[in-house]
Amino acid sequence: MEVSCTDQEVAVETVKVSSNRLNDLKAFDETKTGVKGLVDKGLTKIPLLFHHQPDNNKKSHSEHTIPVIDLEDVVSKDPIKRQGVVSRIREACETWGFFQVVNHGIHECVLEEMKDGVRRFFEQDDEVKKEFYTCDQNRTFIYNSNFDMYSSPALNWRDTFVCYLAPNPPKPEELPVVCRDILLKYGNHVMKLGIALFELLSEGLGLHPNYLRDIGCTDGLISLCHYYPACPEPELTLGITKHSDNNFITVLLQDHIGGLQVLHQDKWIDIPPLSGALVVNIGDLLQLITNDKFNSVQHRVLANFIGPRISVASFFCSGVKSSSKLYGPIKELLSEDTPAKYREITIEEYVKYYNAKGLDGTTSLEHFRV
After folding, report:
1. How far apart are CA 266 and CA 203, in angstroms?
2. Contact 194, 165 (CB under 8 A)
3. Residue 317: CATH number of its domain
4. pTM of the entire structure?
5. Would you call 183 helix, strand, or coil by DSSP?
């Protein structure tokens, strides 16, 4: 059965909206064709639903660039070279919360096919896509436009599909034919990379290489595939508003168009596409368990006259949708001088709060501070 976002009970924490706005949201939701459906109609003015509050901090700055880290030395048996990589990753996580990796082991042809697979899904016939349109989080494959449609102050100019790849890999028949094979293949590659990254992150914290993996950081993998159509009025909206990620880490594949920015020292810094590279950023849950040693930094995506822009964000999480397992600051990182800054929580509790709050430009971490 098809389930639209309007079929779900809207959370108590959602923003108050006028009846006219609510009707407009429901009408947009029930088209099941997302932002691309609007663009396909040839609109020249974007709907008010997508208008964001004026931002006095729209200017981007180019005097800084996020670190680019070569992982080729990781496979080296030279411990000095490996330690050099660990040191660069630790510094990037402490000062930026973002870095790019090259020589990461995923062939460029796989990266290109993954982007092509996303494009094929969103550009197929609407009636075929509508079969996958849902906000039911229990589905393996979820296609919609804005997951926080009824809780965020303004909609973002993008459509998304989400696929849960681990711990329970989907059956091939549960996935769209146009991107089925590459989704599974790319997911396998990213899982291997993620395991390697968590080893380096563990070492950067002064812990055993398997520490973060052993506590479940690599148990779950979710692929979020975004499609940003060209926007006729990009100055009025955003591709994705300012936010931080609700996971341990994100591995991001972006295409050549650009638009991703990270907030660094109160300035928006562009993260320009680098051929063959992947962007890695720290999520809220890793900041929480590292007691603020590693930083989950706010970032956004600008809307653009050019499109479509395509990106694939691979979220590493606990993988347990409903579990009583508690996560809090790692005991080995605490001392009398550095007490715990957060209370222990379940992943489900964090994600539930994050989703109900929506992408409103504020961090969810503050809610869980001691």
Report:
1. 29
2. no
3. 2.60.120.330
4. 0.93
5. helix
